[in-house]
């Protein structure tokens, strides 16, 4: 049992009575958290729209269906390829189609809105308020019961059916326009309809009678004791497609599970998806699963078995008649820092920049002026630890210790809970938040993985140098509390939900906590999610927690695959031809756009999916041609922005981010583009930026053709073919690292080895 589980388990078992849930402190190692907000601070939102069984589990915020548990009038739920929406009139089921929306930015957004829905409802009783009745890894059950009368629906990512159950009476189907019935073959159970140019099919039990009440309404007269119907949106109205859907319509999804395995010797992540079904009648033909592009692209294990496809906001969702499938992705490794750069004409400048940054170190901690909540403080902490890396590797141990001392002091101030800034664990919701609130981190449960990712990474940087200070018995216990908030891998717990932000089937995270908005949940800064998962890898390796490390490797590798498809589209499988931008900056359940929450200035729009650029960001250079296209697009987007009589303030905002990004494809160009006196993003320093650029100039861009049998490695390759191999040993004993091309590195404990 983990340390955090023991601590929280004891608290929960000890009776977290509401009467006792005042702002009482709970000690965790040397740190302290509180069981209620202090003073007038607001608590986290309630999630009351759950069945009694689900109320016993931690509230699953930050998911594709979170609107259901937080709102009495939930928004549409983007299941993919279907959307569903519980309403007082019944359950809406729709099959979204593409809309191209011009913007004032002179580009376009691509929307797949929830519109023109079928509405399904009981005839014998009115549907009740919608509640979450169950949630597995990528499926949910929605209850719309009223008293003893039961009406429910099960939906799952990728699955083109909604599976309905009704305790008594018949089912009414209202259409968004006149429906034309087309040939369902000899199977009387099937009602196949063309509605507004789309194909839908409903599948009732043996003995069902389909009665047309009007051009826009049908009734399913259900036999006694057979209260089930599945409804499907179909990609076309072909006879073969309808036959395929009929074969699988009676395999109702009851459970879904994702399992992952980090194959360390091969540096591969194998992910297995398995759906469990209940066959309502007839032969067991298994389910019909819809695979996203990151599932089927270059996946020889599924390609020959794939059938028809849906056009969706995620590209082609292709149908697989199977209960299980697997994917395999290469993990390209990370290291906590890069080695020092040798003497060169620029190393004196590096020393000067470091001295200047050290003089301003307290300001760089972001103590005031931008935000005093946990997000900005986390950025400030990691900002200084990355600068400490450079000082150490350049041989300046005194400066390293000075910087780490400042970071430790600030963390102790927060973790001790003695001042205005403190941490609160809410046992009803099953979450950790921190005050002061910012970006609706508490009020709407937003961005937990972004925020805690900075803290976890900073703590890992300290743990490398001072493991005793970072131990669970001292300040590491609080860090593990934050890890549990975003990376609990056990299902059904009361203290924290399963993988709070991460969507195992979509392959990426969600940032909005309560799922506001008609276009579904969203995530903007995919790169901050990657930084968080890298922090889990480092912390897990440093503390000997292999399960946490492997979880970090799984989420890091998987989210990169999703980013390369859904944000960057480097494989050209997803973005609509009408979309004018090179990348997506904001991904929603039902749209993608090139914008931010706070500005439409193109430098920040583009940079938000790059920052923070550190030694775990090599994936951004996976496709050098794409990097060049992206940077060329920035020039074009800036020209359009200026033509609207607008200008970035300052004009070179985040120039350090773009210099580092460029350097991942062309180190010389990246270094040449950086202005020592230019603007700097507030999670970075001039010191770390120059060291990063000089390192790539010396080592060359990342080489993705070589792997290693350790989680902490990186490989680079110069234009002349010379490779640099890096490996970090987070253990207390020497290790030997073998690279896939035969190179072997001996690595001392808690150190970085390099060859040549």
Describe this structure in words.
This protein has an eight-stranded antiparallel β-sheet. Strands 3-4-5-8-13-18-17 form a seven-stranded antiparallel β-sheet, with no helix packed on it. The chain is globular and about 85 Å long. The two termini are 42 Å apart. Helix 6 runs antiparallel to helix 18, helix 12 packs antiparallel against helix 13 and helix 16 packs parallel to helix 18. By secondary structure, the chain is α+β, with helices and mostly antiparallel strands. The chain contains 18 helices and 37 strands.
Write a short abstract of this structure.
The protein is an alpha+beta fold.
The structural class is alpha+beta
Terminus-to-terminus distance: 42 Å
Tally of alpha and pi helices:
18
Residue stretches low in confidence (pLDDT < 50, at least 5 long) are: 1-21
- What percentage of the residues does DSSP assign to strands (E)? 15-25%
Task: Give the secondary structure arrangement, pairings included.
Layout (H helix, E strand, L loop, with lengths): L2 H11 L11 E4 L2 E4 L17 H4 L11 H4 L6 E2 L4 E5 L2 E5 L4 E4 L5 E4 L6 E5 L8 E5 L3 E5 L7 E6 L4 E6 L4 E4 L4 E3 L8 E6 L2 E6 L5 E6 L2 E5 L6 E7 L4 H10 L2 E13 L4 E12 L9 E3 L1 H4 L12 E4 L2 E6 L3 E7 L16 H13 L1 H4 L9 H20 L3 H20 L5 E5 L4 E5 L12 H18 L10 H12 L14 E2 L4 E2 L12 E2 L2 H18 L2 H22 L18 E3 L2 E3 L8 H6 L16 H20 L11 H9 L3 H7 L12 H14 L13 E5 L5 E7 L5 E4 L5 E4 L3 E5 L1
Antiparallel strand pairs: 1-2, 3-4, 4-5, 5-8, 6-7, 7-32, 8-13, 9-10, 10-11, 11-12, 12-19, 13-18, 14-15, 15-16, 16-19, 17-18, 20-21, 21-25, 22-24, 23-24, 26-27, 28-29, 30-31, 31-32, 33-34, 34-37, 35-36
